[in-house]
Amino acid sequence: KQEVTQIPAALSVPEGENLVLNCSFTDSAIYNLQWFRQDPGKGLTSLLLIQSSQREQTSGRLNASLDKSSGRSTLYIAASQPGDSATYLCAVTQGGSEKLVFGKGMKLTVNP
Amino acid sequence: GAVVSQHPSWVICKSGTSVKIECRSLDFQATTMFWYRQFPKQSLMLMATSNEGSKATYEQGVEKDKFLINHASLTLSTLTVTSAHPEDSSFYICSAKPDRPYSNQPQHFGDGTRLSIL
Fold first, then answer.
1. Sign of the torsion angle spanned by Cα atoms B2, B7, B10, B15
2. Chain B nearest-CA residue for A103
3. How many A/B residue pairs have CB atoms within 8 Å?
4. B10-36 pLDDT, tens per residue?
5. Distance between CA B86 and CA A45 in Å, rounded?
6. Is-contact B106 B1, C-beta < 8 A?
7. Which one of B49, B97, B109 has the shortest CB-CB distance to A44?
8. Percentage of chain B exceeding pLDDT 90
9. How many helices and strands, by DSSP H and E, does chain A display?
């Protein structure tokens, strides 16, 4: 059974720092991996999607990498801003299924 | 961009009441939609996969008679929590997987429904 872990559960940093968020998964036979953002009481916004054949994806200040063999992904946030404060979730799908298996998320607080 | 509308956003009701939550894809068709549940400080957990024109597929441990899913059109799925009890209080989120020609897109999520059973 696939399990997705995000450690730490929470992180508080001053504005301007470069951040690395970690995600690990137990079964390396994934189809793709996604990073989401969730604001309090809201749904999910997809940030980046990495196919299993890809190593990384970039969007603006965000960069996500994937090392499928070791079961790890990182989300890099450059020059963090208070508006980046949210919970970040990592999720994977496995071949032939659209089912997303989520981690518990990491609550990020960027202080001005 | 693709938008999924979920309604209502917040429900408070008495124990024993049945509650219906709607999930609509506004600018695309979705044969497949998903229903998730999220308890505080926990992961989103998939409850069921909703398929237009056929029965939903429920995950292990989810009672199909308690959580009724209807996917009557390519843009609408509904989740009815029947005879809700306080332990059903949670945050329910739906998502929709676009059909062709946008099937290369990932699932799009609604804003969720906060359900509180008194």
1. negative
2. B43
3. 52
4. 999 999 999 999 999 998 999 999 999
5. 29
6. no
7. B109
8. 81
9. 0, 11
